[in-house]
C-alpha cells in the first residue's frame, strides 16, 4: 500500500503547477485526503483536504489559489496550484486517512524567479 506524489518542480512567481497523489494497494476511495507542506526549518502545515464524499477545506493562505480534487476511477488526488508565491516553496506531502494513515514521500515545489 502506498501513495506516490508527482508534479513538483521549479516555477516562477505567478505560475501554476498541478500535483498528483496516486494510491495503490488500499481502498483509497474510503479515505479522506489531505495535502500538507513543509518548508525548510518550518513545521509541516496543512494545506487542503477533500473528504471521501468530495467536501473540501483550505488553509487561509491558499484559499482562492489552490484547488484540491480527486478522481475515484483513477485512485488519485490532485492539488491545482495557481498564482504561486515564493512562500509556497516547500515539500508537499499527500496524506490519506481513515482506518489507517498513509503518507507519500513528498514532492518539491520551488517558486522562484
The helix/strand series, from N terminus to C terminus, equals EEEEEEEEEEE
What's the story with the biggest beta sheet? Answer: 7 strands, mixed
Helix content: under 10%
The amount of beta strand, in percent, is over 45%
The tally of strands reads: 11
Terminal residue distance: 38 Å
Poorly predicted sequence stretches spanning 5 or more consecutive residues: none
The rounded Rg comes to 13 Å
Spatial shape:
globular
What number is the mean pLDDT? Answer: 97
**Tally of alpha and pi helices:** 0
Counting helices, strands and paired strands, the structural category is: mainly beta
Describe the 3D structure:
The chain has 113 residues and is mainly beta. It contains no helices and eleven strands. Strands 2, 4, 5, 6, 9, 10 and 11 form a seven-stranded mixed beta sheet that branches. Strands 1-3-8-7 form a four-stranded antiparallel beta sheet, with no helix packed on it. A hairpin with a 3-residue loop joins strand 9 and strand 10 (101-103). The model has no long low-confidence stretch (mean pLDDT 97).
Amino acid at each position: 500500500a502506498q501513495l506516490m506524489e508527482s508534479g513538483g518542480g521549479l516555477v516562477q512567481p505567478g505560475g501554476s503547477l498541478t500535483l498528483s497523489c496516486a494510491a495503490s494497494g488500499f481502498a483509497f476511495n474510503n479515505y479522506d485526503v489531505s495535502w500538507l507542506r513543509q518548508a525548510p526549518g518550518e513545521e509541516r502545515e496543512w494545506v487542503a483536504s477533500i473528504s471521501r464524499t468530495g467536501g473540501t477545506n483550505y488553509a487561509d493562505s491558499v484559499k482562492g489559489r489552490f484547488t484540491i480534487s480527486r478522481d475515484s476511477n483513477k485512485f488519485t488526488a490532485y492539488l491545482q496550484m495557481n498564482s504561486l508565491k515564493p512562500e509556497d516553496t516547500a515539500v508537499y506531502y499527500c496524506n490519506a486517512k481513515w482506518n489507517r494513515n498513509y503518507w507519500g514521500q513528498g514532492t518539491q515545489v520551488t517558486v522562484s524567479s
